[in-house]
Amino acid sequence: MVLAINQLQVSYHQQTILHGVDLNVAQGEIVCLLGSSGCGKTTLLKTIAGLTDVDKGEIEINGNTVNSDHITIAPEHRNLGMLFQDYALFPHLTVHENIAYGLRRLSKKKRNIRVQDMLALVQLPNISDKYPNQLSGGQQQRVALARALAYQPDLLLLDEPFSNIDTKVKFELIAQIRDIIKQSGVAAIFVSHSKDEAYGFADTIALMDEGKIQQTGSPQQLYQQPNSLFVARFMGPLNEIKRTQLPQQATEILAQKQTQPSENDKLFVRPESLSLAPIVDQHNVELQAVVESTTFYGKQVTVTARCYGEVISFYTDSQQHLASGDKVNLYFSTEHLLLAD
Amino acid sequence: MKKIILAAALIGSAFSALAEEVNIYSYRQPFLIEPMLEKFTEQTGIKTKVVFASSGIVERLQREGKLSPADIVLTSNFAALLQLEEAGLTQPINSEEVNKNVPAQFRDENWVALTKRARAIYSAKTLGDKSDINYEDLATAEYKGQICTRSGKHPYNIGLVSSMIAHHGEEKTLEWLQGVKDNLARRPQGNDRGQVKAIKEGLCTVSLGNSYYLGKMMTDENQKAWAEAVNINFPNQNNRGTHVNVSGVVLTKHSKNQESAVKLIEFLTQDTAQSMYASVNYEYPVKEGVELSELVASWGDFKVDSIAISEAAKYRSDALRLLDQVKFDL
Amino acid sequence: MANTTIVKRPWQISSFLIVAILFAPTLALVFTAMESSQGIFAQLADTVLFDYISNSILMVIGVCLISLLIGLPLAWLVAMCKFPGKRFFSWALVLPLAMPAYIVAYIYSDFFDYAGPVQIWLRNTFGWQSPADYWFFDIRSIPGASVILALVLYPYVYLFLRSAFAQNNLVQMQASRLLGDTPWQSFWRISIPQARGIIVASLALVGMETLADFATMHYFAINTMTTAVYDTWLGYYNLPAAAKLSVLMLAMIFLLLAIEKRQRIDKQNYSRNDSFDNSEMYQLSGGKAWLATGFASLVLFAGFILPSLVLCGFIFDYYDQVWSEEFIEYGSSSLFIALIAAVLAVIVALIINFGLRQSKQTNQLKHTWIQPLPGQLASMGYALPGTVLAIGIIIPMTALEFWSNDVLVEWFDWQPGLFLTGTTFAIIFAYVVRFSAIPIGSVQESMSKISPHLDHASRSMGAGFSKTALRIHLPLLKRILLTSGLLVFIESMKELPAALLLRPFGFETLATYVYQYVSDEQLEHASLAALSIVILGLIPLLIVNRMSQDSLQKKVNSNDSANHNN
């Protein structure tokens, strides 16, 4: 394990921010700390970096304890790389000097080679003499990444790395940076509030809420097998239909499926699991709904409909022409029910 | 903005006076002259207003010209009197009373001296009797590292150097100045009083200082010990006499309250004010027959430099040049 | 055509007008300097001028160096570290600013003189008899004066750097820590280089204050350019020679300002104000913490507590002589003119900086070097020693008075007399000329952080430049206006030479009242008045400090956009 966190508790101004967090990161793994603002994800990142003090619990990096009851290792001795939200490039230094900043122990020759390697890695070969304010936002970010990687950290920390990037180029950049990190083989943790960034960037997502990690797993796991309603709702659009409203046929089929006791009065299903075409399957459930509105997205159409009193949504392809007031039958397989066994 | 300027202008109080009053520009500290001014107002009902400045009064008067509110200028040394006269900022005082009170050598058409003070040499009591000391002796090897003095460029010292030039010529004076400078115990600093304090502490054994400082120190509880450590000596008693400086007063050229101003000048030359100078500030009155303070009288009578102050004052800028030449203060 | 441009740029035009007024005294001096000095200047140049210049330069270097050595570590400690008493020191370390330097000088020379208690004690203890028996530093020397001035001037460095350290680069420091820097390395490699501009700017202030200081230098008998101006003017009665010396000093100031200017270029603030919490401060412990507390205590004691105690001691010893009825009157006069001067200086600073922004935005000036000219010229007054400034003011002001008297007598048969130099107007004007450099500089600094996007936004909604200035910039600048205004107030309370020379009849400030005693080496008798200057100056000082601390918490969030629109 590159990183092992055990029962971490952190507070600030007498207020507990993190309540017993556990997290493991393996070599080469990219983990996303996902959550809305105030959930404690940035605090967790800063705690790993050694920028915040710990109340209880342990942190190990590469087998070395950096935080425990007796030990607090200073940030500079943790061998971490960090990519800040605003990149934190030093404005008074050139790109070259920024990247070489943490390399003072290397000989000048080796240092130059490393800087050139890093610039090649981030595909910005010819800018080493420029100052940060002469670069575009995307270039600044890649320089910051080069600076962090040049240091050859055991673990790379990224604080909301994409929040300042245009949506248009964001996903291109996510892919690029993911490639760079994967090439360098370093393990990384990044903080984000956007599930879309997490899907595109992370091998593993740790979804946080109220100072705890609610669920850890691959993006698919969290989307398809959430362990709580919170996770299910956070990871994507969710249709929630009260069971008491359902027709006889549906109730019977559904009875074969156990849902989690706390949520047993509702059924939860992703919009893409609802289909206009009947499924020839014993798990097939049929629902009636009335179309309320449609939104055209090019290759697909998102339909909002009323179904036994609840507002639900589903997708159709753009060939289908549904209009407000149309009555439709919707089908789904109980295999696709969320929060159910 | 306009309103603020207007308000500021209104608050300032120096519009031409309506009541009978005299406006005074003073080189002398207010606490020295206020007792006399109060007496004056008491006697005559004429009010006085004072602006004290240790520098720049002449310049200010010059610029204010005919609009100047000042009626008289009180100076603390002779050079300033002369400067005012030369700059054409004075007018004749024309007062029988003044002429009667002040001996001719201490007045001119355009200025009147009010008090005299001797440029004395203070010596440590441990040196024994030095009453036969001469200014010239200060440049001799006897006082190597023993002399304390204030800045050479203070008017009192400039006056002394001017009188040296008047007696000995420039070349000899330059030599003398260099000799004094080489004998200094420390860089010129502080005022005359501070030098006596230094003698008391053993930093030096002789210092230059105006006579009245001894009186001031004798009557200050904390400074009495300093004064008791020294003897006051009036130099050159066996030859030309001790250099004397004066404080004085002029009537400004553009005075708007001439009559009251002359009254004040007359008052300052009369017995009451003259004896107050003697008793408050331990100076020598210019009016003959005015009683000295007991303390001042105890220092004994002394012979005054034979060359008139106005004669010596001509060498003022030469004195400054010589002081710069030997870098006296540096 | 010309008319329409004027109408379109009222701020720019009025800023040039104001500068013309504020610069008039300097100009008058320059013209006076061109008159013949009848050989006096040449004579000075042959003898003592070089010593005067080198003394001035040594003083500036000495005071700047010591101020930096005191102010920079203190600013760093207070901004970044936790140590015992930090909250107290955070504001208390500003206090020495309220101490007039000449009072501190008086007290310390009394203390460390040969005849002072320290040396007497040493002699008694070790049985030394005369100065030949031992060596003791001479307080009335360039190093001694440098320490004294630095003790009261370091707060400039401290105040400037404290906010610079706390505001700017926390994230960057974290970044450097994560790249392997120890706190110490990160201080040298990140904080110091980035604060360089602020360091130089604050030292330029300290340097100018040092050059302009008369009372302390005079008291310590150190011959500098400023005292030389006095000597030449009052000794030789030669104004042109004095003016020549003043112009030489102005050249030195120009040099200081030019250096400061260079440092300001390209100093872009990159940090996006990531929410920073105090938990990232260094928690000092054990010996280090007490070292920090000890250092701060020592500075505070030397610069403020000891002088205050001595003043209190004088009051106690001479209690029957220090009180006088006029005292309240002097106090309120001081307060009054200092307040007006502060308000006017702030207004001047606003107009000049609005003018600068307007000229930058309209870009109608072909020559860009003209743009910052008003600010630079108006700041020159800061460097003028009070007496020099007073002469410079009297020359054009009396000329104006003569002219208007002539006109008014001819037309209305009314002679208003000296309605400028005969009133407090002259003093207030002198203070504005002398001290508006403080708000001009700090407003400029703050204004450069206001994103041009705000202007564009406001103007796109139909607000003109003036409306934008008053409704957008003014509220954003409120804090810095108050802060710099209060600094002007404090300086005006302490100012001496100009007040001495320019005050009207019967008008006395606390400073002039104290000075007549100090000049006679009898501070004891004016100790209560001296303490009043300090106390009256303390109140605004504490407010200033409060504000600059608040601003650490609520940070202005607009400084990033400037970087992205290039």
Automatic annotation (TrEMBL), chain B:
Q: Name one GO cellular component term.
A: outer membrane-bounded periplasmic space
One Gene Ontology molecular-function label? metal ion binding
According to the UniProt entry, where is the signal peptide? Answer: 1-19
Keyword NADP found: no
Identify the InterPro entries for this entry: Ferric-bd (IPR026045), SBP (IPR006059)
Keywords tagged on the record: Iron, Metal-binding, Signal
Give any Pfam family that matches: SBP_bac_8
Task: Show the coiled coil region(s).
Answer: none
User: Quick one: which residues bind Fe cation?
Assistant: Y212, Y213
Q: Give the residue spans that cross the bilayer.
A: none
Belongs to which family? Belongs to the bacterial solute-binding protein 1 family.
Q: What is this protein called?
A: Extracellular solute-binding protein
